[in-house]
Amino acid sequence: MSTSRNIKAATGQTLECKGWEQEAVLRMLSNNLDPAVAEKPEELVVYGGIGKAARNWEAFDAIVSVLKRLENDETLLIQSGKPVGVFRTHPAAPRVLLSNSVLVPKWADWPHFHELDKKGLMMYGQMTAGSWIYIGSQGILQGTYETFASLAEKHFDGSLKGTITLTAGLGGMGGAQPLAVTMNGGVVIAVEVDQERIAKRLSSGYCDRQAASLKEALHWAEEAKQEGEALSIACLGHAEDIHKQIIAQGFPIDIVTDQTSAHDPLNGYIPTDLSISDADELRKQNPELYVEKASYSMAEHVRTMLKFQKHGSIVFDYGNNLRQVAYDAGVNEAFDYPGFVPAYIRPLFCEGKGPFRWAALSGDPEDIYRTDQLVRDLFPDQDPLLRWIDKAQKKIKFQGLPSRICWLGYGERVKMGLGINELVRKGELKAPVVIGRDHLDCGSVASPNRETEAMKDGSDAVGDWAVLNALINTAAGGSWVSFHHGGGVGMGYSLHAGMVAVADGTDLAEERLKRVLTTDPGMGIMRHADAGYEKAEQEARRHNLDIPMLGRDKHDG
Amino acid sequence: MSTSRNIKAATGQTLECKGWEQEAVLRMLSNNLDPAVAEKPEELVVYGGIGKAARNWEAFDAIVSVLKRLENDETLLIQSGKPVGVFRTHPAAPRVLLSNSVLVPKWADWPHFHELDKKGLMMYGQMTAGSWIYIGSQGILQGTYETFASLAEKHFDGSLKGTITLTAGLGGMGGAQPLAVTMNGGVVIAVEVDQERIAKRLSSGYCDRQAASLKEALHWAEEAKQEGEALSIACLGHAEDIHKQIIAQGFPIDIVTDQTSAHDPLNGYIPTDLSISDADELRKQNPELYVEKASYSMAEHVRTMLKFQKHGSIVFDYGNNLRQVAYDAGVNEAFDYPGFVPAYIRPLFCEGKGPFRWAALSGDPEDIYRTDQLVRDLFPDQDPLLRWIDKAQKKIKFQGLPSRICWLGYGERVKMGLGINELVRKGELKAPVVIGRDHLDCGSVASPNRETEAMKDGSDAVGDWAVLNALINTAAGGSWVSFHHGGGVGMGYSLHAGMVAVADGTDLAEERLKRVLTTDPGMGIMRHADAGYEKAEQEARRHNLDIPMLGRDKHDG
Ligand SMILES: NC(=O)c1ccc[n+]([C@@H]2O[C@H](COP(=O)([O-])OP(=O)(O)OC[C@H]3O[C@@H](n4cnc5c(N)ncnc54)[C@H](O)[C@@H]3O)[C@@H](O)[C@H]2O)c1
Ligand SMILES: NC(=O)c1ccc[n+]([C@@H]2O[C@H](COP(=O)([O-])OP(=O)(O)OC[C@H]3O[C@@H](n4cnc5c(N)ncnc54)[C@H](O)[C@@H]3O)[C@@H](O)[C@H]2O)c1
């Protein structure tokens, strides 16, 4: 098994495959493993603990070789990162269908997963790792930006100026936090146990500086806050430990959250009393003890966050399942602070809004700047969106293939997708563009501790919606469609679907984009209208969505 | 809510819908609720405990009205028996996509399901109840016939002549057991607690007679065995109680199995010390106590079956999760007797064989007889298959729309499907035919206590395969495609997918049938080849299936 690969997506107009769709898959798969994009490319790990792009290097090679020979009316099946079959379908069908990490519920936990993983029968797909539409930290940056913007709107008159946020975890997703906070004008202290991760965020410009000590971090933070400056500060250490020290010193924090990899108590979270290398050792020697220690640290971590809440900080969970682990370890009040979705994101979901993203297969940043302009042209009245596009263009260094993300709603996505397809058709872009999104979207996920936490009708755990999302997007003609279990909250806690479509400027692409960029966010409105959210019901009516029983039942049994 | 409906599928050539596909859906949904087909149509229950066709009557009415207006390029989404949306897709896409009873794994158990069910947010889809391709007892009869035939082959030189089988449960599925055993030449005693169910099986001809007492049953059985006659005997009582009496008397039994509704300890299994009406009462008054009593009875039931095994009987589980309930109630050896799939069915799965079925939308039995002839024409050398067709034609009374089932493998299904489409095209059949199958099939289900019990590579719990089956059949063009959780083994224990395609004699139907009747059984061969079954690997090579890594890895990690 090679460990010294250096994978990069091909760019430009020359095809290695028999069509642009297959080529797009190949480039995006490669892009997911680009060292500039992936967290641990040598282990095929893209982000989020052990979220992988392929089961192993043999499987990766086999996928690549199938993609190169795949016909325009064939469909490749991927089972947890391994290519298991190719069937003849038709040109408007997806070129690839993926199912990653799905386990029969009774066996859907970490021990069973690890057993199967060890046997080479599974891999962890996270959300966009195994579905080949991860685009580096920018992907989460917009979501994180939206979250903090929404928080600022709700609690601080629209800006984080003069506030201090405390968080931890500067990994693939968490690394977006410092920039998201400073883009909203605030100060942030981000605790991270791994010096390499800190270095990565500093060099990518996502984090401003690293403090040599907690004392220095607090000093800088205080100063910036006083002067109303935006500043992000990394601080090396274990979250629980640093948080406790801050509490002990009575230093005032406005906002507390966390993005350590708590969803995976064996391969993710580092227990407070272990260095990274000791953690590596113990993980191999005694996994049970490791999980016990990690759970204990997480319980203490949550207890400290609850203390911050009691002292008046705004505390929210950032989707890593930290509360659940703490709860299982005996912290009964773990769920006393809310998840970020019910707190800040659900109103957007009711409009079919979610993390729309696209990447330029040409490899040319100019193609993305041209699409930035398209956003400005199509949505001239949407100030926050335009502000984001401007900031993103200035602040974001592309990782791997140039790409852009912005949250768009029902109607907007199809407009943008067709607009991009037109630009490709007219030759204003140098090559086709892939259009996709995170699995964390309005109508694609069932995750009672995150995206579907505290649904109005109590339907948090209903997984049918995620299944229907994958099925309808397959029918509507996504280029590749995926269904995953686990994701950001870990084994047992979520089901979710992904979709990517290729805009290659053809009529067929136009048809398919028109359909799939309607079905996909449409599911979001339907799901929330069905749950009784008035906003979603209004949106459904406004857009003339066909919801047969809308308004006819009120879920009272 | 109406409880006095009398639903029957329309027949003949006149359409109530805008195309034959939609019409087929409407007729099959109605057929599922035909009193001649469904177990409790007034509660929308089709079979298998609480397996329903629609969430409630309002939802049913809404589905019907959508189907009547659904265009030929639209797709209706069903979420646990409720119509939640309609989207524009395209003519080769499915007309309906269904997801039933899917829960996020951590919440995928009976208490959560019942809570959601009570709130009106879910329904139990079983396998073919919520996916509208149940065809009455014949559906399971062929599977049961195959199982007993395979058992006879393995243990008794191909016939059950001179053997006595003891089983219980004469419900929707279990009611096929008496006829399946007598078709194989054997004697069977079937214990059933509900006199109405017994009456139903007697009147349908599935069971020969009812004994007035256990004594009489044993007497008749002994007599028939001696004379080498086939005979099925119903015996009123609780399985555990009757079984214990038989053991106590030292009466020799050759084969023991069970099809009581053990998968559902609240709405299914009747505890030994309760009459049916007392059970109904207790279920409402004190569901916890009910489940406790049912679990206790099931534990004793399994202990008795284990005793039979020790005394030399061939004992196997018949897919109702009885062993699991007993195991959870403390019977550590519950899994000492095997499930029917590893014991008798898996070799068939390796050839892509499974419960292929079709129904005549004309309503005319002659259409089915014409397709029986087609089977004879297409597969002239397959003696067991032809024997089945002959017996079925003679013995089986149609319930609802005339239909036929026979187990066909990869290659055979597409041959048969295209043959049927040709007959429709040429006007040799009076109307189109729907072609589907049970979810219990070679490549569509993950169910570690049943279809994927004891897989060679240990991949029993991997659910990706069921997801991929639903996705590829959606891409390939099934007319309706479904994905369910639960089914025959209950909440938490299985994930499975269904597919139905309409043969209406058009070119488009031909194309779609060609694709989908290839992908569907093809998945079965792939799944078993991937698990390392040589038979499946051979079949894959023989049929030139495109399996990228076939033979390249041996799952040693
Ligand atoms: N909010 C969202 O939208 C969202 C989306 C996806 C995933 N997530 C979840 O957020 C979490 C972070 O994701 P990621 O991709 O950044 O994971 P990651 O594994 O790439 O990064 C986690 C980081 O946490 C650090 N860490 C671990 N233990 C620590 C400790 N005790 N103290 C300080 N730092 C510690 C690790 O060194 C690592 O850098 C995951 O649980 C992920 O599932 C959130
Ligand atoms: N083998 C298979 O292929 C297969 C397929 C699907 C389902 N199943 C499972 O088989 C079981 C039977 O299915 P069904 O559709 O016939 O269910 P059903 O609910 O229609 O029938 C179950 C029958 O068992 C009877 N019963 C309950 N408790 C009893 C007791 N203590 N003693 C005697 N009889 C008792 C009931 O009165 C009822 O008639 C279910 O658990 C189902 O999930 C098996």
From TrEMBL, chains A, B:
InterPro entries to which the protein is assigned, alphabetical: Urocanase, Urocanase-like, Urocanase_C, Urocanase_central_sf, Urocanase_CS, Urocanase_N, Urocanase_Rossmann-like, Urocanase_sf
Binding site for NAD(+): 48-49, 126, 172-174, 192, 197, 259-263, 269-270, 318, 488
Details of cofactor binding: Binds 1 NAD(+) per subunit.
Molecular function terms, GO-annotated: urocanate hydratase activity
Domain Urocanase Rossmann-like as annotated: residue spans: 136-344
Catalytic activity: 4-imidazolone-5-propanoate = trans-urocanate + H2O
Record's keyword terms, sorted: Cytoplasm, Histidine metabolism, Lyase, NAD
Main location: cytoplasm
Domain Urocanase C-terminal: 347-541
Domain Urocanase N-terminal stretches: 7-133
Pathway: Amino-acid degradation; L-histidine degradation into L-glutamate; N-formimidoyl-L-glutamate from L-histidine: step 2/3
EC number(s) on file: 4.2.1.49
Cell compartment(s), UniProt: Cytoplasm
Catalytic residues in the record: 406
Cofactor section: NAD(+)
Family the UniProt entry places it in: Belongs to the urocanase family.
HAMAP family assigned to the protein according to its UniProt record, in alphabetical order: HutU (MF_00577)
Function: Catalyzes the conversion of urocanate to 4-imidazolone-5-propionate.
UniProt xrefs under NCBIfam families: hutU, PRK05414.1
Name of protein: Urocanate hydratase
Lineage: Bacteria, Bacillati, Bacillota, Bacilli, Bacillales
Encoding gene per record: hutU
